[in-house]
Amino acid sequence: MRKAGSDLKVSGVMLALCQAAVLLVLFTVWYVLTETGVLAPFFFGRPLKVFWVIWEWFFSGKIYSHLAITLIETLLAFAVGSLLGLLIGLWLALTPLASALADPYIKALNAMPRVILAPIFAVWFGLGITSKVALGVTLVFFVVFFNVYQGVKEVSPVVLANARMLGASKRQLLRFIYLPSAMSWVFSSLHTAVGMAFVGAVVGEYLGSAKGVGYLILQAEGVFDIDTVIAGIFVLTVFALLLDYIVTRIESRLLVWRPKTAETEAM
Amino acid sequence: MSVAVPNAAALDLEGVTCAFAARGGEGRYIAVRDTSLTIGAGEFVSVVGPTGCGKSTLLNVAAGLLAPSSGRALVHGVPLAGINTRAGYMFQSDALMPWRSTLDNVTAGLEFHGVAKAEAVEKARGWLTRVGLAGFGDRYPHQLSGGMRKRVALAQMLILDPEILLMDEPFSALDIQTRQLMENELLELWSADRKSVLFITHDLEEAISLSDRVIVLSAGPETHPIGEFTIDLPRPRDVAEIRMQPRFTQIHEAIWQVLKSEVLKGYAQSRK
Questions:
Q1: φ, ψ for residue A55 (rounded to 5)?
Q2: By CA distance, what is B155's nearest residue in A?
Q3: CATH of the domain at B265
Q4: Which pLDDT score, from 0 to 100, does residue A73 have?
Q5: Angle at Cα B53 formed by Cα B48 and Cα B57, nearest 5°?
Q6: How many Å is the Cα radius of gyration of chain A?
């Protein structure tokens, strides 16, 4: 009899092969349809030209400065947004009065489509990195904030009482009970948060900038160069996947204590 | 620590009444009414009563986690204000920090008291060995069985060397074999330095086999003590064997006479 484990491994390799095959089929269909003129290349691009654009970007080195800008914006938005979300989430969750006072405003700010803030940020902070980071922060903040808030509210009363009996002071409760408990919620929201930071950066660039992958896409769109637009989308997708992979690695390393990872929905 | 009335009992509850706002907002629910009980130094006292009779409420008052509506708690003759720092508390449900390894859970109390990490770790390793968990220090709580988690909780409490142990049905979630093992281990650890113990349980056999004295509570609401029995069984005891002794059966009979009607009352109320 074969073991269940080896079965899984074989099917894992097979799965990867099948997934690659699906990609290949999609590209072939795209290639055939655009080459035969069923789909107009002007609107749908040509796969070979798209790859050529990507190839040239990386080998001429033209893309690196743009990619670096976009990634820096993403990471800054992610870091600042998470930190603010963590601090304000902890503060509001632990002070009921402030929380009750802020409640309608938090809800209003969260309900507002924050992308419309981009023009205001462009006016305030100019067309450089800062305005994109600001947009990303408004997106990341709420994801982290709601998770921290929930995390603190969900701290087990028994664990809390136990820590108090073991002599934990107020400050120690914050550091050793509330923070770790909230962090587990934060980590499960990291995927959403990183995605949001990326959205903030690219949308910010797209709406007005002088550098970044979003800027490249905007430029290409201006001259109806659909191949370059699609190339930009591919590059962004690959890096979004890469960021997501890094988050998964960090998460599984930091949350070893969890029986199973629970995913929370962004609010 | 410095202030203590000489010859005072380890723990004294004087006329404790606990009222809560009733669910639905109207009126009050009186969980415990005018209850007084005393635990002498080095005495093992169990409190039995039907489920939902407010046993845990009494324990929380003794721990300082809950302020009584009236009455007071005295620790070594000194009125309790805030957390009872001379007591260790073992909870009914899991109280370990799930994000800390077994070892870090045991060191937690010492860390809170500002003991250096290296010293705390060394002490914690000693305690893990004493509760039979040497080599499990780097496991997380979810990787341990229910019985093992109780041992960790025991080590976590005892490492601070509290003078009073407050235990809230600590073994109720365990299967009967593991439970008897844990009870024997508790008795062994207790006999080493005779701490004062207030042990809450709904299991009469457990109460008799462990204690010097058993206090019976009435069914809730307005729970109050309705009987007190001294257990004159010899020590050291083996909780599995002592149940076979005729004296055990006699005591069990006597207490059950008092407890039975309360259990029935509690059962009737829970069905309302």
A1: -55, -50
A2: A166
A3: 3.40.50.300
A4: 94
A5: 90
A6: 23
Q: In total, how many domains does chain A have?
A: 2
Q: Do A258 and B89 touch (CB under 8 A)?
A: no
Which residues constitute the domain of residue B105? 92-161
Which 8-state DSSP code applies to residue A169?
-
Q: What integer pLDDT is reported at residue B272 of this predicted model?
A: 66
Cα A30 to Cα A36: distance, rounded to the nearest angstrom: 10
Query: What is the predicted pLDDT for the residue at B262?
Result: 83
Q: Where are the alpha helices (DSSP H) in chain A?
A: 4-35, 41-44, 47-60, 62-94, 96-111, 118-125, 129-153, 157-165, 170-173, 179-188, 190-207, 213-222, 226-254
CB contacts, 8 Å: B111 with chain A: 176
Digit-coded pLDDT (tens) for B14-69: 888 888 887 766 678 888 888 889 999 889 999 998 877 778 888 999 999 999 98
- Is A125 inside any structural domain? yes
Q: Which of B89, B101, B113 sits opposite A162 (nearest CB)?
A: B89
- Count of domains forming chain B: 2
Preceding amide of B221 cis, omega within 30: yes
Residues in chain A with pLDDT values less than 50: 1-6, 261-267
Domain boundary (B161, B188, B221) is at B161
CB distance B136 to B148 below 8 Å: yes
SS (H, E, C) chain B: CCCCCCCCCCEEEEEEEEEEECCCCCCEEEEEEEEEEEECCCCEEEEECCCCCCHHHHHHHHHCCCCCCEEEEEECCEECCCCCCCEEEECCCCCCCCCCCHHHHHHHHHHHCCCCHHHHHHHHHHHHHHCCCCCCCCCCHHHCCHHHHHHHHHHHHHCCCCCEEEEECCCCCCCHHHHHHHHHHHHHHHHHHCCEEEEEECCHHHHHHHCCEEEEECCCCCECEEEEEECCCCCCCCCCCHHHCHHHHHHHHHHHHHHHHHHHHHHHHHCC
Interface of A with B in 183-212 (CB under 8 A): 183-184
What pLDDT shows up at residue B62? 92
Are B68 and B116 part of one and the same domain? no
Strand-strand pairing, B87-90 and B164-168:
parallel
| ipTM given for this complex | 0.87
